Amino acid sequence: MRRLTLTALFLLGAAPLAAQEQARSPHGGLALECAACHQPESWTAIRIDDRFDHGTTRFPLGGAHRAAPCRACHESLDFARAPSTCVGCHTDEHRGELGPDCARCHGDRSFADRVGLAPAHQLTRFSLTGAHLAVDCVSCHQPRAQGQPQYVGTPTDCVSCHRTEYAGAPNHAAAPYPTTCEECHRTVTWTAAGVTAHPTTPIALTGVHSGNLLACTECHVTTPYASVARTCDGCHQDDYLATTDPPHAASGFGTDCASCHPLVAGWAGASFDHPTTPIALSGVHGPALVNCAECHTTMPYASVPQTCDGCHQDDYLATTDPNHAAAAFTSSCTDCHALVAGWTGARFLAHDGAVSVFRIYSGKHQGKWDTCSDCHTLGQPYASTAALRCLDCHAEVQTDKHAGQNYTPSDCVQAGCHANGSKE
Length: 424
Hints:
The protein has helices at residues 2-23, 70-73, 86-89, 117-121, 137-140, 159-168, 232-242, 248-251, 292-295, 308-318, 390-393, and strands spanning 38-39, 42-46. By secondary structure, the protein is mostly helical.
């Protein structure tokens, strides 16, 4: 009986003792059975089973974190005190310049895995493109004395990293080339150089001047490069002098080749639009129908006549229907003729304007005469016919409607009674 009593008293005392031991768990508020991690033979024999899921905590395990020993992060047995930020466990090699979130650039498999580096770098003053994407960070971000910036203060100009390449390249310093490498070079490779612009020169790098077709040294034969000629004839004077069809020098052509020639091989496709002359190259004067030499029969080309009769005086004198010379027609052929072959379709449009009040292309006068000689008597200058009065053709009005009236105007239109060609 005494033994049973002692046993009962022992068990009653053990219950509060167990509760007391559970309350003093070194893991703080971790609500998990001890057997989920500890083995019966020893507290230090750790084997975490499926009853514990680290993904339910504020720090899910991924990548290299899954293989790390617990004590690497949990230095305190009170697991809630474990840091959840990167810099809480990892030394910040960037000295706080880039912030505490390593995941902005690094993946969790390894610090060498910079999966987020390129996208994050695009938000900086220096976007990574081409070969810069594969360069190790320390190639540009050289270590410096303690307290000096390694990343934020890194220069972004090309020459700060590539001065050695600049100094070793042929003619770069002697030219002198600018140290803004991106004007000629691409970030993929140095060898794919191609000048994209001559920002301070009038020579555009297009057509046959393109950097893909022309090496810099073909024009820049002297140094510094700024000493190269900046006009067409500076490089192409020999071509200018050697051209015979037509002879450019004898014709007095300008030396601005681009005013006629496109930037193509062989100088093909030249077109002169006569911008400074009154002779438009249109109609029968179009360059597809008339060769330059048909008009430019003397040298220099500037000596060619610049009026219609300068080339067409023989046509003017030979015309008899009507006789242009006898009629004292103007020698400005385009007053009547369009620029078509055979001089067809001539119309003296000034007849409906200030030269004559007889509007033969409008009103009731339109189409009433087959030839000019119906009114303009042959053998007299046409200008003398301008004195004709309405009554010279419409004498019937004196014996008809106006018979017996004292008012007999000499010019019905100018008197303001009748509109052109109207009897009303």
